[in-house]
Amino acid sequence: MSGATPRVVMVVDDASLVRLYYRSVLEPAGYRVCEALNGLEALEQLVAADIDMLIVDINMPVMDGLTFLRALRQRKERFASTPALVTSTEVGAQDREAAEIAGANFYASKPVSAHHLLEVVALLSGHKT
Amino acid sequence: MNELLEQFLIESRELVQQATLDLLAIENDARDRAKLDSAFRSFHTLKGGAGIVEFPDMVTGLHAAEELLASARAGSRAMNVAEIGNCLWALDQVTGWLDEMEKTGTVPIDAGRVAEEMVRRFQPALPGGSDSAALSPPDWLAGLLAAYPDDARQAVVALMFQPDAQCFFRGEDPLALVSGMPGLLAMRVDEVNPWPELDDLDPFECNLRFAALSSATRETLLHHVDLTNPSAAKQIEIRALSPIRLEGLKFGPTARLILEAQRQLLSHEETTGMAGRVGAARRVVMNVVGRYGEYSDVAQRYERLLAAEPGDRQRAILQALLTEVLEDGQDPEPPVDKTALSPGDHSAATVRSLRVSVERIDALVNLAGELSIAKNALAHAAALARGGTTATSLAVLLEEQQARLERLVDQLQRSVMNIRVLPIRQVFQRFQRMVRDLATETGKSVALVTEGDETEADKSIVEGLAEPIMHVVRNAIDHGIERADERSQSGKPAQATISMRAAKAGDTVVIEISDDGRGVDLLRVREVAFQRGLISATTTVSEDETLELLFKPSFSTASTVNVVSGRGVGMDAVRSAVEALGGSVKIETESGKGTTVRFTLPYSVLMTPLVTVEAAGQIFGIPLEKVVETRRVSAGDISAVGEARIFVHRGRTVPLIDLGSTIGEPGCRLPMDEAQVVVVVMENEMCGIEVDRVGEKMDILMRPVEGVLAGLEGIAGVTILGDGRVMLVLDLEAILR
User: Fold this and answer.
1) Which residue among A82, A107, A119 sits closest to B254, beta carbon to beta carbon?
2) So what's the pLDDT on residue A84?
3) Which tens digits make up the pLDDT trace of B206-221?
4) Which residues pair with A116 in a beta bridge?
5) Which residues of A touch B261 (CB under 8 A)?
6) Residues of B in contact with A73 (CB under 8 A)
7) Res B559 pLDDT > 50
8) Which sign does the torsion angle of CA A16, A22, A26, A32 carry?
C-alpha cells in the first residue's frame, strides 16, 4: 500500500487504440500498464502476475468481458478479488447492471475522459498521489 | 459477547501460549533468533488485538514489553533471566485480563494499575532508559500517541505536566489537576526519576510526570490550569496536535459513486463467485477509504478485522460500513467495535467457543444433505402407499429407508462427538511453564518431555485434565525428584525428566505422567497408614494395596508431606477429578527409578445437564430437561388437601412435594414464610418440589448407581462433584409415584 510501488493496471480490450489511450493516460500518472486482448488472455496473465486493478471491455472475441469476470470471481486464488472497472460503448442501465452482476466493481461508459479515468483508477487501485 | 471480542479472546490465548513457549525456549538458548522473533510477533499481535477491542491499558502495558523485545532483537545483547521473567509475568497479567473479559464480556476498566506496573517493569531495561523513563521530552509525545492511538485521533492537544517536587507542601494536588482537565481523553503517569528503595523513599516529594490527551483547546486548558493551580503553569507543556478529524468525512463525488457501486455489488444474491466479489469489493472499499490520508489507519484496522472473518461475515461488515459511510457520510469506525462497548451486551457474557476444523464441519454438512435425501425417500413411500401399493412392497421400501436412516443417524452422532474433540496438546502445553516455575522454586533442574500431543479427547476431558495433571506434576517435583547432587550420587543425570504421554487405546485415552525420581517409599507409606489407623499392624499389604492407600482422603494430609518421600499430596483429589471425568487412576513405582501415574479416560462423554438443589442437608441433582422453572411460593399460597399440599402455578393447581421428607428424614425443615420450589413436568403433569436451596446448573457425567445405593428408589445415578463429594441424581418418576 505504500506510494513507492507503482500500481499495476491490466487493460483487457481487443482494440489497440483503446489500449494505447489508457496507457498514454495512466503511465505518465505513475502506473504500470499491461495488456490482454481478451478475457482468456487476461486470466492466463493473472495467474502469473500481480495485478492491482483491471479495466475490462465488454465486447471482445474469444472470451467477452462479462464471461471473464464471472470466471474470475469464481477462482480460488487471491486474484479472484482483483478490482475491476468495466467499460463499454453501450450507455444503457442494463449494461451497467449486467456488469455488476458479473462482478464488476464499477462501470464507465466509453469514451472515458482522462480526468475521470485517473480519478476512478486511483480510487479503485488504491494509488497514492 | 460480540464476535469480535470472542475472536480476540481465542486468538489472544493462543498468542499468550505461543509467547510463553518461545520465552521458555529463549531462556534455554538466549541466541535463538527465531524464537525471539516469534515472541516479539506474538506480543505485537496481542497488542494489536487489544487496540482493536479498545483496551488501551493492555496496549500500553504490552507496548512496553514489545519495546524490550524489539531492543533485544535489534541489539546483540541477549535477554537476561529477569527480563524473561518480566515478560512471562506480563503474559500472566494478560491471561488475568482475558479471564475477566471472558466472564464479564467487556474490557476491564481497572487495568490501569497493572498496565502501569508493566510499563514500570520494562522501563529500566530499555537502552538509555535508566535515568529518564519513556516519557521524557521530547519522547513523551510520541510515547503518549503510540499508547493511545484511538484517543490520539480525537485529541486536539497533548499536555505534559511535571509538578514541582515540593508541590505537596503547598497543598497542591497534581493528580486532581490533570484528571479534572476539560476534554480529558487519556492520561498516563510516570516517575521523573527511578523510584528509590522503599527505605530511601521520600513520600513528601512529588516524583511524578503526567502526560495527557485532551479534546479541549489549548486556551481552555491553560485557563483550567490557571484557575486550579496557578503555580503549576510553569512546568506545563501543551502541544497542539494535527487536526485529524473523523467527523465530516469528505469523500469526493466519484469516491461516493464507487462506494455506492460496491454496495450494489454486495447486494446481488448471486451464488457463484461470491467470495471473489466480496474480496473485490473489500479491496476497493479499503483502497477508497485508505486514499484519504487520515483514514488510512482506519482502513488498516478494517483490513485486519476483515481478514479474520469468514466470507459471509465480511460481506455483512462491509455492507454495514458502506451504509454508515454513505448514509451518514460521517464515521468510518468499524461498526463491530461499537457493539463491543455497548452496554447491555453482557447477557451472553460467558459464551464458550470451540474451534472446529473445516473438514469436521464439512462432514456434518454432507450428513445433513444425505439426511434430507433420506427424508425425501419417505415422502416417496407415502406417495406409493397412497397410490395403492401392496403393504409388502411398501414394507420392503420402508425397511430399506429405515436401515439407511439408522446408518446416517449413527454417523451423525459420531460426527457431532468428533466436533467436541480437542488435541491433548492444549493441556500438555501449559505445563512447560509450570514445570519451569516449580523447578526454579524448589531449586531442582527438571525437563518436561511430551509425547502423543496430537491424541484427541472430548473437550470436557481435555479441559478437566489440567488440574489432576497439575497435582501429579507438583508431587513429582516436590517429592519424587531428588536434588541434583543426590541424583549425581546415584548415577542419574543431574537434570530430571518428567514425561507426559498420551495415547488412544480403543474407546479410551491413556495419559501417563512419569518422573525419573526416587519412587514411592512403600515402607513409609505402610508406616503412615498404620499411624493413621488405615491398616492394622498385622495386615499384610501387597504393593498394589499400598499404593492404593495413597488415594485415601485421610492419608493425604499436610503432615505426611514431609514424611513420605514420594507421593502423598492430594492424590485423593486427583482420583476424584479423574473419576468425575469418567476415568480411573493407577500408580506404578519402582524404588530409585521413578513413578508413573496413569489416567485411563473415556474418549467421548455424553453430559447430562442438571440443576443442583439442597434438601435435608444433602445435595441432589435434578435433570434440567424436566425443570420448567424455579420460584418461591409464599406459605399463604400453599393449601393442604388431606395429606397432600397444593399451590397454584400459572393458573394451574399443582401438587407440592417436600424433597427433604420424601428422601431424607421427615419433618426436618423449619416452617418458613416462603417455600423454594422447583416446578417440574412429568408426562404433561406439573409438580412442585420443595427444596431448601436451588444451586447451580451444571453438565455432569452420570454414572450408574453401584454398591449400597444400588437398590435405592428414586435415584437415577450418581456423579462426583469437583470437590470430591458424591451427588445423587434424582429419578423424578420414581419419587413422584
Assistant:
1) A119
2) 94
3) 888 888 888 776 667 7
4) none
5) 100, 105-107
6) 272-277, 280
7) no
8) negative
